Each structure stands twice: as structure tokens, then as C-alpha cells.
Amino acid sequence: MKGTIFAVALNHRSQLDAWREA
């Protein structure tokens, strides 16, 4: 379960970075 939460958090952060670059 921890792995899944980490993956979701990492994906969320990637989306934030994408918004910043956009």
C-alpha cells in the first residue's frame, strides 16, 4: 500500500511540475 501512495504522490508532483513549465 505504501508503494501505491508513493507512486500517486510522485505522479501528482509530476503534474504540478508540468503545470509550472506550461
UniProtKB/TrEMBL annotation:
Any one Gene Ontology MF annotation carried by this entry is: isomerase activity
Which keywords has UniProt assigned to this entry?
Answer: Isomerase
Give the protein's recorded name.
2-hydroxyhepta-2,4-diene-1,7-dioate isomerase
Traced from the root, the source organism's taxonomic lineage reads: Bacteria, Pseudomonadati, Pseudomonadota, Gammaproteobacteria, Enterobacterales
